[in-house]
């Protein structure tokens, strides 16, 4: 988007310059280079727009996937909350059944106590029967009533027992359902853990590929650095060789000029006067100039500084391509000038 804004700004500036150039008669018309630049900027703007549209479509698809996963998570959470609610209701029902069971047991105890009291009364009546014959009818009636109540209580007891068995069956069913829900929860947890392990494995593989690419890039950068260093050394060595060749050619030309100026007889005469050989006399004449020595030293220092500058550019942060190209072109131009000078000297010597 930032590149798009920069390109739009450049296009607006070009359009404004073209409009101002059309209005003013003194200024010349825009050149073909500006039109080509404008077309290139328009092409870049179209490419950036296409890239932005692609990125927006991918973002939309990713958002849809995230929304689907969030809906799935909500559904699972709602299902879990329903199961928990059902479980709590079943627990309340079990507690109610237990309270009813306790009440029935208490009723059974009271009925047993009443039955025992009735039996004691029957025995007392049987003992008093002999003494109280007049009360036999009333006692028989009371006995019938007592037996009826006993049968009624026995029926109530059997009914309560049947209800208790039914409730025990219901309790067993509830326990089995509870076990099934716990098994379903464990399966859900297992699937979730498997998905998380798969995601972690994919992330590890992606990190391994990125690390391999990074190592390959570092190897390429190191290879490029060695190439640039070797190229600069070779270039500096070739320049130094050309300088030495030029110096040797100049020296040979000076020697030839000196030999032409001095005849062989004068050289022998000077050697006899100085009491030295002709070769020693030539060595004396070939004394190196102090200015030439200083120039050679200065050129060596410049080459050293140039190599240090190349090293600094390679160690500096990006971008460094443009200054590196300028430095190498500068040395190539120097080599070109030296080659021309050497070729001209060789032509003169020939």
Architecture blueprint of SSEs:
Blueprint: H1 2-23, H2 32-129, H3 136-261, H4 264-274, H5 278-285, H6 290-315, H7 321-349
Helix pairs in contact: 1-2, 2-3, 3-6, 3-7
Overview of this protein structure:
- This is CNTLN protein.
- InterPro entries: CNTLN (IPR038810).
- The chain has helices spanning 2-23, 32-129, 136-261, 264-274, 278-285, 290-315, 321-349.
- The longest helix has 126 residues, at 136-261.
- The model is unreliable at 25-29 (pLDDT under 50).
- The chain has 7 helices and no strands.
- The protein has a domain at 216-348.
- 91% of the residues lie in helices and 0% in strands.
Write a short abstract of this structure:
The chain is an all-alpha fold and 350 residues long.
Key attributes of the depicted protein:
350 residues; rod-shaped
Report the portion of residues in β strands: under 5%
Main sheet characteristics: none
CA gyration radius, whole angstroms: 58 Å
Share of residues in helices: over 70%
């Amino acid at each position: 988007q930032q590149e798009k804004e920069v390109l739009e700004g450049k296009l607006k500036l070009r359009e404004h310059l073209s409009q101002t150039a059309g209005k003013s008669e003194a200024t010349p018309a825009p050149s073909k280079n500006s039109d080509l630049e404008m077309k290139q900027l328009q092409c870049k703007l179209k490419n950036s727009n296409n890239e932005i549209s692609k990125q927006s479509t991918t973002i939309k698809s990713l958002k849809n996937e995230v929304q689907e996963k969030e809906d799935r998570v909500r559904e699972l959470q709602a299902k879990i909350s329903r199961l928990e609610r059902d479980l709590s209701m079943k627990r309340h029902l079990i507690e109610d059944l237990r309270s009813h069971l306790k009440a029935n047991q208490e009723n059974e105890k009271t009925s047993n106590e009443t039955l025992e009291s009735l039996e004691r009364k029957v025995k007392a009546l049987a003992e008093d029967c002999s003494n109280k014959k007049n009360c036999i009818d009333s006692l028989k009636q009371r006995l019938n009533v007592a037996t009826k109540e006993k049968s009624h209580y026995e029926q109530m007891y059997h009914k309560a027992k049947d209800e208790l068995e039914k409730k025990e069956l219901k309790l067993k069913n509830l326990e089995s359902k509870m076990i099934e829900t716990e098994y379903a929860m464990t399966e859900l947890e297992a699937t979730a853990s498997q998905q998380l392990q798969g995601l972690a494995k994919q992330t590890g593989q992606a990190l391994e590929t990125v690390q391999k690419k990074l190592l390959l890039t570092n190897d390429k950068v190191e290879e490029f650095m060695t190439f640039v260093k070797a190229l600069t050394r070779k270039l500096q060595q070739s320049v130094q060789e050309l300088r030495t060749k030029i110096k040797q050619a100049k020296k040979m030309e000076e020697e030839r000029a000196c030999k032409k100026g001095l005849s062989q007889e004068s050289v022998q005469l000077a050697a006899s006067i100085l009491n030295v050989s002709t070769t020693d006399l030539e060595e004396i004449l070939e004394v190196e100039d102090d200015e030439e020595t200083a120039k050679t030293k200065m050129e060596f220092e410049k080459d050293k500084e140039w190599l240090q500058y190349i090293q600094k550019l390679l160690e500096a942060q990006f971008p460094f391509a443009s200054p590196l190209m300028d430095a190498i072109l500068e040395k190539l131009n120097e080599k070109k000038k030296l080659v021309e000078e050497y070729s001209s000297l060789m032509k003169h010597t020939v």
